Amino acid sequence: MLGGPAAIAAIVGACSILGACSGQEAGPRHGEVQARVDEALGECLPGLAGAAAAADAHAWPLPAGGAGATVFCRVVPVDRATPWGEVRDWVASAAETAGGRLLWSEPIAARGSAERPATPGAGDAGLRLDVGLPGLPTHTLVLYRAGDSRPRVRWGNGPAATAWRQLQARATTPVVALVIDDWGYRNDDTTRGLLALDVPLTLSILPGLAHSRRFAAEGTELALPPRASDQAGGPGSAIADRRRAAGCPVTFTLEGGDERLDARRREIFLHLPMQPEGYPEVDPGPRAVLIGMPRERIAELLDVALADLPGVRGVNNHMGSAATADRGTMADLMAALKARDLTFLDSLTAAASVAYEAALAAGVPAARNRIFLDDDHQDPESVRSRLRSLVRSARTSGFAVGIGHPHPETLAVLQEELPRLEAAGVCFVTLSELLALQGRAPTNEPS
């Protein structure tokens, strides 16, 4: 149970440190105030004693407080019957009585993950409180309701995503990203079978087809590193800027205790039609990117397609043997992708393609297709041979990307071969995960 302000005052009132907030003398007095605040908070928050001895108790270095000064970082249970506002007020009273003050208050979620991080304003889930002297905090407290699962706190800005760390640990083996093009034409046994595969897939969807939006909804959370600005008060967020301005430097991330690396991760790409050789006799379909198009028109086509396919993380070319070889067209496309925080996969439908180089020049995370599994050979043995060639390439270079299509023959080979390849140590990932493992795509949210 919480103690009242009167009880706190009786215990520590005689220990008030007048003038402790003075700029010239704050440093030497930090340790003294910290001891008094710790004693007062112990009366206000009975769970603090156990929190100080817990494995996740942390001492955050505070150079401004003098040699050896730290911020006590604690995860503390609080009686669930006490409103958070009352908890905050009593902590503030305890800090003031001990010569400090409440520096910062921030609602937090008790649990989170890399893809769905804890967010401010998450109701009655938890509370962050920082107390101490202005510019010299003594405590950072993560409060949660007694009886709830104890939140798993990672102090600092290190990676917090359990799934991401699991993927990093597995990805010491050859890494292969399988991209399946041409989604949207039909919803049949083959497409359902592909979606049922127990490996990550990147689904590249043609815009404007009968089943395009249905397959765009298959996107899932991926195993990606957290983006700092997406974390609750992460180092790149406006909340963190305000907190630092209040003199509170401690950062942390909260992890989901039951997070796991789901095998059926599904990433959504836009399969953007582009001008092929032989156009217009060879037709890429409506709303295709054509050579000579104004940059504004390319951006407009991209936006129309994205509006129809929520959750898209990247783009690869459908056809496009002519467009991807045109430097001006690719420069305009990559500028649009960069502005929308999208990645790019060069399908390499022609050896003359400059799309990959244009993407890198524009600062767009990009990869190149290593091999088509089934573009001109749909017999199972050809698909099998090409899949094995893709894996050999990954063993040689560490990473490889292969593109397939929703053909029954492709599905049959994948159903047979993928379990064997995984057992042999091949790590299958989505395209964005592959780029992240290469240090080239740190984002964790679709556009």
Give the arrangement of secondary structure elements.
Blueprint: H1 5-12, H2 26-44, H3 48-53, E1 58-61, E2 70-78, H4 84-97, E3 101-108, E4 126-133, E5 136-145, E6 152-155, H5 162-170, E7 175-183, H6 189-195, E8 201-205, H7 212-216, H8 238-245, E9 252-255, E10 266-274, H9 295-308, E11 314-319, H10 327-339, E12 343-346, H11 355-361, E13 366-368, E14 371-372, H12 380-397, E15 399-404, H13 408-423, E16 427-429, H14 431-437
Parallel strand pairs: 2-5, 7-8, 7-15, 7-16, 8-10, 10-11, 11-12, 12-13, 14-15
Antiparallel strand pairs: 1-2, 3-4, 4-5, 6-9
Helix pairs in contact: 1-2, 1-4, 2-4, 6-13, 9-10, 10-11, 12-13
Main sheet: strands, sense, barrel: 9 strands, parallel
Number of strands: 16
Extract low-pLDDT stretches: 3-28, 110-124, 228-233, 442-447
Helix content: 25-40%
Number of domains: 2
Rg result: 28 Å
